[in-house]
Structure formats: structure tokens, C-alpha cells
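User: Second chain of the day. Same drill as before.
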Amino acid sequence: MRGFRVLYEKYSHRIYVFARRFLGDQQYAEDVTQEVFLQVFRKLDSFRGDSKFSTWLFRVTVNSCKNKRRSVERERRLDPETFIERTRAGEPAAPPERELGHRELRDEIEQALSSLTEEQRAIVLLKGARGLSYEEIGEVLGQSENQVRGKLYRARKLFRDALASRQKAVLAPASEEDAALAAEVLAEPGD
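Assistant: Same format as last time:
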């Protein structure tokens, strides 16, 4: 059990940040973080060691984020009124970085990310926010390194275009993570 606690302490924040950016919602990100660690606890013996543990963990995270997004969309379609009421009732207080005046950049990044497909968002976040190599991203998503390179190139272009179309000046990053993500996503291809 101590080993599991060490894993949780090492990876929980990374998973939460990834899920929050992927899903665009704090509560859903918390749910996904818990779900990921429940799955890891149950299936740790199925980890074969073919890849790094962190690669396997982020594969579980990406899949959990996709599943959460699908369930939220299904709930929204089936009962929009209940969904809106539930969302308002469980709406968390604004994060501190927004209260400090950095809302604009965070919102711009989140809106630009939400304009990407799930796969594009996952690739951008795995590369930019997690710093995984093309090979590791390929392992997480079950794709070749060259496929990842091409898809990342297209996703970055779409991300840049989404930011440009909003025609808002991006002043200062809300956090070091936002600065790193923006720099990575906006980086010129060929890195």
C-alpha cells in the first residue's frame, strides 16, 4: 500500500493538470484523477513493462478523459436542464490564478484547446504539458512516431489559428505550466 501512496504522490498532480486541460473542468478533472488511480490500483498487475510506467499511466489517463467527455456529452444530450442545474450547483470557486487577473490567457488557451479534436488535444497536452517524446506519445496513443509528428504539426497549426481568430492579446501566462504549454504549442515545427 505504501508503494501505491508513493505513485499517487508522484503522479496525481500531473494527471489532474492533464485532465483539467483536456476536459476544461476542475470537477471532472478531479473525478478522472480518482478514476485513474482506482484503475491503476486494480490493474497494476497487468502492467507488462513493455513501456515506461508513466507512459502506461498516461494511456490510462487519456482513455479516462475520453470516457469522461463521452459520458458528459451523453448526459448533456439526454437531459440538458438537469445537466445545467448540476453544473451550476457543483461549480467550484474560481481558481486563484483567475482571481489574480490571469483569466484571459487561461481562457484563451482552454478555448483554443477545446477547438481541437480529442486526439489533437491529447497529443498537444502530452507533448507540451507532459513533455513526452514523440515515441512515448506514440506508445500512449498506439501510433507511430511519424504519425505523432504529423498530427502534432497539424494540431499546433489549428491551435495557433484558434488563438489568432480570437484576436485577443496574450499578455502574461497565468502560471509556469501555462507559459510552458503556450511556448510548446506555439513552437515552430521540427523540434
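Residues 120 and 151 are 7 Å apart (CA to CA).

User: Great, on to the next one.
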